[in-house]
């Protein structure tokens, strides 16, 4: 007999496969190797998780509707990936998905492990800034990557996350999202997602990299009206209706895997034309702050190493490796 978790998922799978028909309690019990009262307990557990299941005497059980959940049973069976998210850790509440993924990485979790939470209580972005993580509204996930990357290359994985999300929003949802260097995704000039990359390395190469992504999906205008560093929005606000987080997550995971494999094969330079095409800043005068230094110039490109190229008033081109864009001509 399988574990309680695998039994639970197997019953859900059988109900899904019935395609709107009833499955008898006897059939479920025989297939998963438990008693009929055991089936009943698992059905009640599924109902508590938000699955709408009809029960009929002598006919059994039928799955009527599924919740907008990011649980294992809603995501992993529907993956279209070779290696990403096949190890999938789902938690309803968690301090930080990045912190959890870093612990799993230290314990030997495999390449492509994904950690996802319905709610974060200590979500964070760059420079330990707080990331608001409303329960059951957004997508808060971390991806563990174990390829041995040179230390100077590892931070470039942030571009993989932003490019994958922008292409997902544009191609699957018709939303004109853009990339704001170094780690944000915008819609109509407002922040819809942020990316935080953390690594553990030896002298020359990374031991592993964790890419954390927070996406505002079904947040309301009221929830996005808080005192944020940058104006914020959500996919639902921009489209005018709630969207299935499951669809967003599945499309994003598939896209991330493809873009990451392209990055490994050809390097960041192969992705730069699209990164620059979808950039919020290219050709605009921007203000970048790093520590006590403020730099003003026209964003004219991204270098093959990942630096933002800033054209100064004196005609010189300066690579910017870190900082915050606090002003975009005609924008924030």
The CATH topology of the largest domain turns out to be BirA Bifunctional Protein, domain 2
Question: What's the main sheet like?
Answer: 7 strands, mixed
CATH architecture classification of the largest domain: 2-Layer Sandwich
Q: What is the H-and-E element order?
A: HHHEEHEHEEHEEEEHHHEEEEE
Number of helices: 9
| Estimated share of beta-strand residues | 25-35%
Rg is 22 Å
Percent range of helical residues:
25-40%
What's the CATH class of the largest domain, please?
A: Alpha Beta
N-C termini distance: 58 Å
Helix/sheet category: alpha+beta
The number of strands is 14
Parts with pLDDT < 50 across at least 5 consecutive residues? none
Order of adjacent strands in the largest pleated sheet = 3-4-5-9-8-7-6
Number of domains: 3
Q: What is the fourth-level CATH superfamily of the largest domain?
A: Bira Bifunctional Protein, Domain 2
Form type: elongated
Global mean pLDDT: 89
